[in-house]
Amino acid sequence: MGIAPATASEHATLLREAGLIRTTRQGAAVSHSVTSAAVALWETAAG
Fold it and tell me: How many domains does the chain have?
């Protein structure tokens, strides 16, 4: 990815706290997905 795992984790935490991503965990695997709020924000910004 080109960034340290700690940096990625910090960014994910900020996005999750802002309500822009949802995080699910299964054992050691972690998955992130965008929320409807993130999609709406993207669509508004894209015009």
Answer: 1
